[in-house]
Amino acid sequence: MIKIQNIYYMLCYAYSSLREDAFARVDAESFDTIQDLFAALLLKGLACQIKRGLLRTYIERPCITDRPRGKILFSDSLKQQAQGSSRLVCLYDTFSENSYMNRILKTTIGVLAGSDKVRLAYKKQLRRRMLYLRDVEMLVPTAIHWRTLSFRRNNAPYKLLMHICYFVLHGLLMTTGPGKFAFRHMLDDQSLYRLYERFVLAYYRRHHPELHPRSTYIDWATDECATEFLPVMKPDILLSRNESALVIDTKYYTHTMQSSPFSRRPVLFSENLYQIFAYVKNKDRCQSGKVGGVLLYAKTDEAYLPDCRYVFSKNPIYIKTLPLDGEWRDITRQLEALTLFFKQEQDACSPPA
Fold first, then answer.
1. Could you tell me which residues are beta bridge partners of residue 180?
2. Within 69-155, where are the H helices?
3. How far apart are CA 177 and CA 210, in angstroms?
4. Is residue 13 classed exposed, middle or buried when 0-12, 13-18 and 19+ CB atoms within 10 A define those classes?
5. Are 346 and 314 in contact (CB under 8 A)?
6. What tens digit of pLDDT does each residue of 281-292 get?
7. Taking Cα atoms as reference points, which of 41, 42, 35, 37 lies closest to residue 6?
């Protein structure tokens, strides 16, 4: 099982805002549950946002008035007059803190403050923070439209807060009955996979910019012009240096190996190997052998953990496992080892001077 402290470090890389002074001392604290970690992050993030000022936005409100205000709703006004009233029904804009993001924020704080998995000290602080959001309405956690959120210059500081809210409400929450919610013991696999993928890319961007880490598309190495029916190839991470490249595909599964009727030992999932093989071979269009691949699995509790190297017609493919349940230095050591393998393979393929 992944360590809670490692989740925090992964969040730090994935969302660089966590390196701000407002979050500087979070990693020095000990957390009994993942909910405690997110409660601490929300408390510090919200305190910082309160100092900046809570996000305000224009919200349309209907009103019945004697004087025109904003936009007149003629059909509703005619119904009002048919009832013997001369007043108008108008729709006007108010500059309010009751924005959708503040509503998500208050909803998340309310869920954490009511959870028995959050320590009492954090719950008290969360309830005090909710006083700053007293004019903000709450939402139904399972009915939040996450894809409608967009970030611009005026609401950029909310990006990290919304990601934390998403992890809490989407990754940790499950429904137990009408109007009742409980927490899972850990983030769901989909949420952890996205975090894991984003962390590895951010790590290389921070520590190895000379390798130009990026997530980009790979074109099919075909002579035909019509490729519109071919699936898109986009690996998680691509490292490149001169004419060499290393394609990294991160995998976060409950099981990293599968049983086979033809072998006593478990074997790799064929679709994962086919995928990285396709990435490498199509990237190495000239068949130079200067393109390698890595299947980077997150460590599970299985007895067999893949850690091997294969060469397919000059192209090396590594199968590696990252110990997310261990010490942070072991994780970074493994990531650094991949860059060392890449440079060694590049030197081996380079012609002598």
1. 177
2. 74-82, 100-113, 120-130
3. 52
4. buried
5. no
6. 999 988 888 999
7. 37
Q: How many helices (H) and strands (E) does the chain have?
A: 9, 12
CA distances from 83 to 1, 47, 65 (A): 66, 50, 15
CA dihedral 265, 268, 269, 272 (to 10 degrees): 180
Per the structure block, which two tokens stand in for 217? 């598309």
The pTM (predicted TM-score) of the whole model is: 0.76
Give the per-residue pLDDT at 170: 77
Show contacts of 188-196: CB within 8 Å, 24+ apart.
Answer: 189/252, 189/253, 189/254, 191/166, 191/167, 192/2, 192/252, 192/298, 193/250, 193/252, 195/7, 195/10, 195/11, 195/14, 195/167, 196/10, 196/250, 196/252, 196/298, 196/324
SS (H, E, C) 28-65: HCCCCCHHHHHHHHHHHHHHHHHHHCCCCEEEEEEEEE
Q: Angle formed by the axes of helices 34-52 and 100-113, to 10°?
A: 140
The per-residue pLDDT for range 82-100, each reduced to its tens digit, is 666 777 788 767 788 889 9
Q: Which helix (H) or strand (E) holds 12?
A: helix 4-14
